[in-house]
Amino acid sequence: MSLPTPAQKPATVVGIERLLDIFEAFQLSQRPLSLTDLAEAANIPKSTCHAIVATLSSRGYLYSLSRPRALYPTKRMYDVALDILKKDPFLERATPLLERLRDTSRETVILGKRQGDSVVYLQVIESLQSIRYSAKTGDIKPMHSSSIGKALLGSLKETELRHWLAEKPLPAITSSTITDPEKLADDILQSRQLGYFQTRGENVSDVWAVSAFLKVDKETFAIAIAGPKHRMEASLPECAHLLVATCSFLSHTLCR
């Protein structure tokens, strides 16, 4: 199923965005909020906030406190999300291997997939080291500057890759981002011959990453190992070896 382009977004998207803004406001505040505070934190009109809150409360997703007069989410959203994740056809089986890859590489491991012209992070297993690359599941990243994006672009045929790069904007995310379509195409094609892809501060300054793509049931995913430059610079070959082995194992064991 194709996703709508920005010009084709249905009218209900605004309502959905405001609903998500409300939950993210609670996430940021981590405390009960009055209707006024919630509307301000979510940056939506108070009347609109009241209508959404009334709907959420009637469905059991919010409960009210009398002293102080405030609102807070119930555990229902968590339970719904947990039940959905338990039935995920890929993540449930892949996560233990991603955790093992994190433990052996000692760096943050990310699983991602293409969503339109961007990358969406499906799973993030953060490094246990105090200085590490941090990200969140659901983060959206550019295709051209992220390690996972370069791996996903590397899964395309050369003609399709060059056409995509020629047609899409390639803004500089950092001073190291490759913004020339020909140079980026050459970088990706050379990386494909190696069997893995790299970014050196191209998406986040001072963060290096190595990635590889894999296909499972005709779906293309990519996995990356990311960490601070001062560690990744020396360990990148070892991380690449671990990553390629993990992708190969996942691809063979998860295909039906």
TrEMBL record:
InterPro entries given in the database record:
GAF-like_dom_sf, HTH_MetabolicPath_Reg, Tscrpt_reg_IclR_C, Tscrpt_reg_IclR_N, WH-like_DNA-bd_sf, WH_DNA-bd_sf
Q: Which residues form the HTH iclR-type domain?
A: 13-82
UniProt keyword annotations, A-Z: DNA-binding, Transcription, Transcription regulation
Query: Could you give a single Gene Ontology term from the biological process aspect?
Result: negative regulation of DNA-templated transcription
GO MF term list: DNA binding; DNA-binding transcription factor activity
The residue ranges of the IclR-ED domain are: 76-256
SMART domains in the cross-refs? HTH_ICLR (SM00346)
Q: Which Pfam families match?
A: HTH_IclR, IclR_C
Q: Which PANTHER family match?
A: HELIX-TURN-HELIX TRANSCRIPTIONAL REGULATOR, ICLR FAMILY, HTH-TYPE TRANSCRIPTIONAL REGULATOR RV1719
What is the protein name given in its UniProt record?
Transcriptional regulator, IclR family
